[in-house]
Amino acid sequence: MPEQHYEPEPAVAGAGAGGGTIGLGVEEAGLPGKRPAGPDGPRPPDRPRSLWSDAWRDLRRDPVFLVSALVVLFLVLISLWPSAITSGSPLACDLSRAQEGSRAGHPFGFDGQGCDVYTRTVYGARTSVAVGVLATLGVTVLGGLLGALAGFFGGVWDAVLSRITDVFFAIPVVLGGLVLLSVITSDTVWPVIGFIVLLGWPQISRIARGSVITAKQNDYVQAARALGASPARLMLRHIAPNAVAPVIVVATIALGTYIALEATLSYLGVGLKPPSVSWGIDISAASPYVRNAPHALLWPSGALAVTVLAFIMLGDAVRDALDPKLR
User: Fold this and answer.
1) What is the DSSP annotation of 9-38?
2) pLDDT digits (tens, 9 = 90+) for 130-162
3) Got the DSSP string for 221-251?
């Protein structure tokens, strides 16, 4: 008998309704990770997600962040342009109106010197925001730089810096302000800012040090080091972007604390001094006659409380968004 040869049939990719075959190409079948084509053509690939993009997405949905950010934005605006919401001068006083209550054109009444409480409260925001922002910048730059260097190089530098920070942590803040600022006669904000930076940098330094130590132990840093990356490149390109988040969180929360510290020092008479306008000065001046004119005390105190609370709430929202453990 003659031998019969059988040819293998072509593989069937899929069967149609009429029994035919349907060949699925690579483009039509789709590959894993490739977005299907839309009516207007292929869809663009998803953009890579990062810590900052995820944090911004969470912050936009957080009502605490939105409310506190609006309050902070309003404070910044009136600090830059106080004349936008008041036409008076904080130094224009009339003793004949001392301790008077609210009246037309003067919704907050007058203080013990006959000054408009509303105008002084508005202009006091400029001083508080300026001290808070400038002190926070100084503390963050100085403390962050020293802490990052100590965490990166370690050794003797780390040991010396740790002992120095322990010494500064042992100094009571209010007592240090009474001692240091009492010998300064300047009526500007710079002595107060310098004092806050002097005693505030150790906190940021420790946060930055710990964050850098954690970041430099990651595999991508070790790989870059093995490939011959210089210390400057390791710090700027690989460690700093991944270690700055905790520093930003602590600095944002500390900003509200610095505003309260400035008001406390001004209340005690060693911070800002007249004719400077400060909520602490107004609270101190209104305290003796709080029974006769409580409005002169309540309005600057309320403004101070709302400002400090807004910055603390803002810092808490940023912390929740930047901390992966809280997701």
Assistant:
1) PPPPS-B-TTS-B----HHHH--TTPPPEE
2) 999 999 999 999 999 999 999 988 889 889 998
3) HHHHHHTT--HHHIIIIIIHHHHHHHHHHHH
Residue-wise burial string across 189-226, b where 16 or more C-beta atoms lie within 10 A, e elsewhere: bebbbbbbbbbbbbbbbbbbbebbbebbeeeebeebee
**pLDDT tens sequence across 89-135:** 898 888 888 888 888 888 999 998 899 999 999 999 999 899 999 99
Residue pair 108/163 in contact (Cβ under 8 Å)? The answer is no
Q: How far apart are the first and last CA of the chain?
A: 77
- Where does residue 51 rank: exposed (0-12), middle (13-18), buried (19+ CB within 10 A)? middle
Residue with token string 């008077």: 100
Which two tokens mark 260? 């309260």
State the greatest distance between any 2 C-alpha atoms of the chain, in Å, as a whole number.
133
| Residues in a beta bridge with 93 | 115
* Pair of tokens at residue 124: 């006091």
Read off the pTM.
0.79
**Which are the contacts of 142, defined by CB distance < 8 A and separation ≥ 6?**
197, 201, 204, 205
pLDDT at 18: 42
